[in-house]
Amino acid sequence: MDTRASLSILLLLFGVSQASSLMEERFEGVFVSEPEPLDITTRILESNNGSSEVLIEGDLVFPKTRNALYCFNNNCFWKKNSNNIVEVPYVVSSEFSSYERSVIANAMSTFHSKTCIRFVARSTQADYISIENKDGCYSSLGRTGGQQVVSFNRQGCVYNGIVQHELNHALGFYHEQTRSDRDQYVKINWQNISPDMAYNFQKQNTNNQNTPYDYTSIMHYERTAFSIQPGLETITPIPDRTVQIGQRQGMSNIDILRINKLYGC
């Protein structure tokens, strides 16, 4: 092989290497996010550590004045229109990247395809959710009136499971492990919970809509939530303690069923 041919090949290889490096940098910078955590509980609690918001159950904005599942005159539910569609107006902060916006939109798409909930871009609606990049992952419970913030911190909250979790709060759902009949299905290990965190495990007077307890709910916290030491169980399933609780993929079939029952889809 002559010198000119060798030089051409070297230049070609160098160009491919540089192009690959640039493509990888672009891919990592725009389209790839940090892998999802093993469970959304850890991600949410870590993201909310030190938040300026007063939060209960880890990610519900205080004050907790009512349980949306038992809602007087349905005032804390989003309204259904004449086409039997429940529209939830929303705006998204310009701080989110196009990739982050696509994660949020994809998380919303499951509601659109499986329920009568439709998250729609706000025009002039008085009641709406404002999706913002604040200091944690949190939401109010149900429709509170006016602007209500749903926070997805860009450093730790923009994942499909977390987005669906917080949007379920905004629709009016508490965490699964605080439902009224939970003691039949999980044991709360109070000795493994810091006393100042015990209020996060108070049972709520929930309307369970004749649906079974769901260990696979996107609203269920995982075994070590609010533990005083890493690895200590605070929630143990009964009677089979090997049952997996807490997951990150997305809404379960029962989550979807409950939305449809609650909103009469």
Automatic annotation (TrEMBL):
It is an enzyme of class 3 (hydrolase). Keywords: Disulfide bond, Hydrolase, Metal-binding, Metalloprotease, Protease, Signal, Zinc, Zymogen. One of its GO terms (biological process) is proteolysis. Zn(2+) binds at H165, H169, H175. Gene3D superfamilies: Collagenase (Catalytic Domain). It comes from the Eukaryota. PROSITE patterns: ASTACIN (PS51864). InterPro entries: MetalloPept_cat_dom_sf, Peptidase_M12A, Peptidase_Metallo, ZnMP_hatching_enz. The keyword Hydrolase applies. Residues 1-19 form the signal peptide. Its cofactor is Zn(2+). Its EC number is 3.4.24.-. Pfam families: Astacin (PF01400). GO terms for molecular function: metalloendopeptidase activity; zinc ion binding. The keyword DNA repair does not apply. Residues 67-265 form the Peptidase M12A domain. Binds 1 zinc ion per subunit. The active site is at E166. This is Metalloendopeptidase.
